[in-house]
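Archive entry. Fields below.
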Amino acid sequence: MVRENLVALQSILTKEVGRYFRIWVQTLLPPAITMSLYFVIFGNLIGSRIGEMGGVSYMAYITPGIIMMAVITNSYSNVVSSFFSAKFQRHIEELLVAPVPNIYILIGYVGGGMSRGLLTGAIVTAISLFFVDLEVHSYGVIFAVVLLTSTLFSTAGLINAVFAKKFDDISIVPTFVLTPLTYLGGVFYTITLLPEFWQKVSLANPVLYMVNAFRYGFLGQSDIDLTTAFIIISAFIVVLFSFALYLLNTGKGLKS
Amino acid sequence: MNKTALKLTGLRKIYANGFEALKGIDLEVESGDFLALLGPNGAGKSTTIGIVSSLVNKSEGQVTIFGYDLDKETFNAKSSLGLVPQEFNFSQFETPWQIVINQAGYYGIPRNQAAARVEQLLKQLGLWEKRDGPSRNLSGGMKRRLMIARALVHDPKLLILDEPTAGVDIELRRSMWEFLTELNEQGTTIVLTTHYLEEAESLCRNIAIIDQGRIVENTSKKALLAKLDMETFIFDIEPYQGALPDYCGQPVRQLDEVTLEVDILRHDTLNDLFVRFKESGITVLSMRNKANRLEELFVRLVESND
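PREDICTED_STRUCTURE:
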């Protein structure tokens, strides 16, 4: 039965990847343009006046954060929009009727979100090479952090989609939660610039751990202890993944 | 092969708002059967089908498909079932080919093995020429046939169709009837819900009627129709204005100058009636049943359950 389940998983992944490639103008092109603008405006124009941050050029400092921002938003938005569309158009029923265990449905959708997040991250990384000579301190840390982060936000996107009842509901979290957390998660600055109180508040932001751990992979420097970052990211994944599976098993938002 | 294709035992469904849609459904469908599940709107047909096809959570009861418990032997139970739902539930942006071959994958059939089956089904259902276009461009009838192809791609032994011919033109409906009959003759057990009682009468061997969450009748079509003790006939006649004859105590009613209506008991023959007509100088041009026989029975059963 494992073989059948793996074939089902492959079908879900094929469908998911095919979906965002079919609408690449809406899925892959916008982050490339937006992030290019970040590089031009924050990196080149404003960054040249800021000078160094954390001992490197401002452009080199923000590049890992901008890549991570693309990974986070694309992983999340891929799953939230795809899963909600499947609910809205009711073709999620194709999976519910079939003998696909819920964990494979979850892995399939999360895998689809991860693939878009990672592809977008790769596109943004390629664009960044036009603006900065990227250093790499540890490939292992870079790949581990980017994989875990895209897993986490893809899973979070699915949870959002399960609870969403209308299209507005899938934009509330990205707009009012995800964007502020990302912008305040140390993408554009080191938290050592903040007063002590706000530094402590920033530590409650999970995105801070991802951005800093990712930046460590490039620059070898981080505001956060690397082990702590991995523990926190992993803990979030375990909790969200278990919750998402529970929701699918109970049929929340899918079955009456 | 298990002789019982589908067995529902004590199936109950209470929705979150407290509405009890199913009040203990017990139903057995024999392997190879062609069963019509009839009932008025809101009777519980779609809830029953929803539970069998894992789209609705049941409150109580057991579902077995070809002997496999849906809760415990899920893979085998679900693999034995194909569902054609009432409403279109496929991605409007995908092509028929993608929709059907992905569905094969969900049943664990690799793409290279499924391709031939997908091609055969799309050709059989007249969708081959449209296989690579977005499914939203298909006509209503084609979309319905696409859902049939999708439901059959894993070659299920039990096919459930929830109003498959709703909104389909007569020609297409007839061709779908032929297709389903052929499928049933090849061994597929079919359960069908429909509002077209003519459809149930033409296609099905057995009929179950569900009303207010309970099965109120479950028997063969033949036995059910035998319960119909009276039929109403309409006669088209040449213009007539004379006195009307009685027939076996049943009055002949004149609807207009050229139309008569008579209730005929099962044991009475029409020959005597024609003699009466001739004696009265009435010339009959043609005759027909007033209503579908099953429809008359259905209305009676549902009304008696109120």
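CURATOR_NOTE: The mean pLDDT of chain A is 93.
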